Amino acid sequence: MSPTARFAGLVALPTPAAAVNAAEHGQRLNPVAVGMFMAFVAVTLAVTFWAARRTRTSRDFFAAGGQISGFQNGLAIAGDFMSAATFLGVTALIFDFGFDGLIYAVGGIAGWPLVLFLLSERLKNLGKFTFADAVSMRLASTPLRTLAAIGSLFAVVLYLIGQMVGAGKLIEILFGLEYETAVVTIGVLMVLYVSFGGMIATTWVQIIKATILLAGGSVLSWLVMQRFGFSFDALLREATLQHPRGTDMLQPGIMTHDALSTLSLGTTLILGTAGLPHILMRFFTVPNAVEARRSVFFATGFIGYFYLLIFVLGFGAIALVTREAGYFDAATDKLIGGGNLAAIHLSHAVGGDVFLGFISAVCFATILAVVSGLTLSGASAISHDLYTNVFRPQASEQEAVRVSKIAALCLGALAVMLGLVFEEQNVAYMVLLAFSIGASVNFPLLFFAMYWKDFTTRGALLGGILGLTVAVGGILFGPTVWVDLLGHESPLFPWKYPALFALAASVTGSVLGSLSDRGLRATRERAGFAAQYVRSQTGLGAEGAVNH
Predict the structure, then answer these.
(1) DSSP string of 371-400?
(2) Contact 205/190 with Cβ under 8 angstroms?
(3) Counting CB atoms within 10 angstroms of each CB, which of 80, 149, 425, 543 has the fewest?
């Protein structure tokens, strides 16, 4: 019997042992989970219909008309960031590796001060729909937008893979469907949200999702702590007794075996947060720079609180799920359904069948909202950065929106195909690959364009191309794809996390390329920094860009 069949039984019955026995005789649905799932879909489709009637211009479609408040946008940003990789993937990493899994939580939250103090205000004042607007403000528009769009698309697609894997697993257990059918279902829904509602629908779906995720995570954490008399000491003591590594799981160095890997992972998480395209484009949904800063302030608070909950959930899963009859496959001695479902097993252990249904529906809401935001970000890069600013500058607003909807459909199809290929990968690690692109390509481009007066088009192109090449090459030829997916004996690139090396290549190329550029265009670009600085501080001229 497959792990899927066993877990389908687990969803249907109140006790783990009974679940496995029932699964031997056929799959049953959890009516609570299905009901909540359908309710969320109904509500969000209604929101999409409401948003579609209010989406009249390209600014409405790509930036919600710039009318989202700082608090609302902060909650939506938190919803974008609190993805399946956070709720399912980081919980699974703590479950597998103990203390080492917390580096994902610490690194993730550490990137937000950079966004608050370095990017949010200037990005809002310089940009229009995407971060490429700010990058190309005083540099050559066509090549820079092309490079920024390519980097954004790589990051979006990699991020989508992790979400699709998590979504497929969840719908698989909710309905007893095959994984392939589940992935196609989520692909269809994400395309509907983006194509009809645009940023207005995506924002409100994120707000709804973030609210129920924070509520669900709080209740689940409270139930876990209740089991241990609200004592962290008792929780950790039981976790060390249950974990195969014992007290060693509280020591660092299990997941990353050398200092270079740890440094590269930290670089990925901190700088990657500040370079995610679907996060950056949210600063264009607020009316001014003050609200942009407030967005980051609120988002940081929500995300920090949620990572505290993840700490409880990860160690709670170790303490309450490890080796429990019904959650492990006796033949393989592995968690039924894989480590990505440790949080789902935990919800069943502390709250029974009803709470499992609620948390499953919350997880699905989490993933559906995030993939909608990602798809819109990728579609914006194709439509706004490439189509209307590179290939067809004379395109109308209606044409730009139409191209964006077609792009959303294509991205949805690609996400479905890749979700099938990467079915067995940890969702947190898959999302980390997207962070690698953000850290090594998007963030350096944005930082240098905003803060270094000698930054030129030549330096931007050289640095961006080098960073993107090393990042993508490290992913393709590293342990995850080259060995785990393609079956080779050893990787050509020995480290799982390429961001540190890609960032070094990007910065080196940007500096050398810019300093060696003495042409007439470079002179104009350096002279244009003063005018750009005024725009970044005041917002004057934010709707236009100086193209060479």
Answers:
(1) HHHHHHHHHHIIIIIIIIIII-TT--HHHH
(2) no
(3) 543
pLDDT at 393: 78
* pLDDT tens-digit readout, 203-260: 888 888 889 889 989 999 999 999 999 999 999 999 898 888 888 888 877 777 777 8
* Helix boundaries (H) for 322-426: 342-380, 397-421
Find where tokens 């995720």 sit.
213
CA 73 – CA 63 distance, rounded (Å): 11
Phi, psi of 325 (to 5 degrees): -60, 130
Tokens of 453: 């007066």
**pLDDT reported for residue 456:** 92
Q: What is the pLDDT of residue 20?
A: 33
Residues 48 and 391: their CA atoms lie apart, in Å, by 30
Compute the C-alpha angle 167/436/315, nearest 5°: 55
C-beta of residue 115 within 8 angstroms of C-beta of residue 273:
yes
Decide if 497 contacts 435 (C-beta within 8 A): no
Q: Are 430 and 422 in contact (CB under 8 A)?
A: yes
Tell me what pLDDT residue 431 has: 73
Q: Are 176 and 351 in contact (CB under 8 A)?
A: no
Domains by residue range for the chain, with CATH? 3-52+65-123+134-264+290-424 (1.20.1730.10)
Which pLDDT belongs to residue 137? 79
Residue 62 and residue 277: Cα distance in Å, rounded? 13
Q: Which residues contact 142 (CB under 8 A, 6 or more apart)?
A: 389, 390, 547
Is residue 471 within 8 A of residue 436, CB to CB? The reply is yes
C-beta separation of 321 from 336 below 8 A:
no
| Amino acid at the residue 182 | A
Whole-number Å distance between alpha carbons of 321 and 337: 13
Q: Are the C-beta atoms of residues 98 and 254 closer than 8 Å to each other?
A: yes
Written as one letter, the residue type at 406 is I
Closest of 95, 105, 350 to residue 243, by C-alpha:
95
Instruction: Kindly report the number of other CB atoms within 10 A of residue 434's CB atom.
Output: 27
> Beta-strand (E) ranges in 150-221?
none
The three-state secondary structure class of 475 is helix
**Which stretches in the chain have pLDDT values below 50?**
1-27, 542-548
- Token pair for 192: 């509907």
Cα separation values, 142 from 501, 519, 544, Å: 27, 18, 15
- Secondary structure element (H or E) that encloses residue 97, with its range: helix 91-97
H or E segment and range at residue 212:
helix 179-227
Distance, first Cα to last Cα, the chain:
63
The β-bridge partners of 335 are 328
CB 294 within 8 A of CB 283: no
Beta strand residue intervals within 221-354, DSSP E: 328-329, 334-335
Contact status, residue 131 vs residue 443, Cβ threshold 8 Å: no
Which amino acid is located at 359 in the chain? Answer: I
